């Protein structure tokens, strides 16, 4: 398996991208900022890019048992946990009957960036384990346009 990323140059010119804006009140914006502060990817952003991320991130709610990310699928979003617990598991051996538990995600943690950063399939499955999970979601194009450039 190989990993590739889009290359821009003479024959593939990068177009200007304007991220979406989803209005939020001051309290919500501050809550997202607090969640973002513990993540290394957001620490490298300048104030303009940080605001663009705050504007573009949207809330998503999942119920217990919902699959947020499925191993092997294309990555479409980056997630930041606001509320709830999620489990991360992976099929380590194709002959295994069940996935192997790897980690539990809790508020303040994030996931989904690897598939976006490396243009690779999802490496694991993540499932909502609490009654509900509230996540902040950032879609691929905004993530790649702002965050990927900042961490390269």
Question: How does this structure look, described?
Answer:
There is one protein chain. With 152 residues, this protein is α+β, with helices and mostly antiparallel strands. The protein has one domain (26-151): Jelly Rolls. Helices cover 28% and strands 27% of the residues. The protein has helices at 26-36, 40-43, 47-56, 113-118, 140-151, and strands at 58-63, 67-69, 77-83, 86-90, 100-105, 110-111, 125-128, 132-139. A 4-stranded antiparallel β-sheet has the order 1-8-3-6. Helix 3 (47-56) runs antiparallel to helix 5 (140-151). The two termini are 22 Å apart. The mean pLDDT is 87.
Integer average pLDDT: 87
Based on DSSP secondary structure assignment, what is the total number of beta strands? 8
- The CATH topology name reads Jelly Rolls
Question: Low-confidence segments, ≥5 residues, pLDDT <50?
Answer: none
CATH superfamily: Jelly Rolls
Class per helix and strand makeup? alpha+beta
Q: Per DSSP, what share of the residues sits in E-state strands of 2 or more residues?
A: 25-35%
How many domains? The number is 1
- Tell me the strand order in the biggest sheet: 1-8-3-6
Please give the share of residues in helix.
25-40%
> What is the gyration radius calculated from CA atoms?
16 Å
How many distinct helices?
Answer: 5
Topology readout:
Blueprint: H1 26-36, H2 40-43, H3 47-56, E1 58-63, E2 67-69, E3 77-83, E4 86-90, E5 100-105, E6 110-111, H4 113-118, E7 125-128, E8 132-139, H5 140-151
Antiparallel strand pairs: 1-8, 2-7, 3-6, 3-8, 4-5, 4-7
Helix pairs in contact: 3-5
């Amino acid at each position: 398996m190989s990993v590739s990323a889009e290359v821009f140059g003479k024959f593939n010119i990068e177009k200007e991208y304007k991220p979406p804006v989803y209005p939020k009140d001051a309290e919500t914006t501050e809550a997202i900022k607090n969640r973002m502060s513990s993540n290394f990817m957001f620490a490298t952003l300048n104030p303009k890019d940080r605001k663009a991320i705050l504007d573009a991130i949207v809330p998503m709610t999942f119920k217990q048992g919902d699959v947020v990310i499925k191993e092997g699928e294309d990555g479409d979003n980056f997630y930041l946990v606001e509320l709830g617990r999620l489990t991360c598991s992976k099929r380590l051996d194709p002959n295994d009957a069940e996935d192997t538990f790897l980690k539990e995600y809790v508020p303040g943690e994030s996931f989904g960036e690897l598939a976006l950063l490396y243009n690779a399939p999802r490496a694991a499955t993540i499932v909502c384990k609490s009654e509900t999970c509230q996540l902040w979601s950032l879609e691929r194009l905004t993530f790649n346009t702002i965050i990927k450039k900042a961490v390269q």
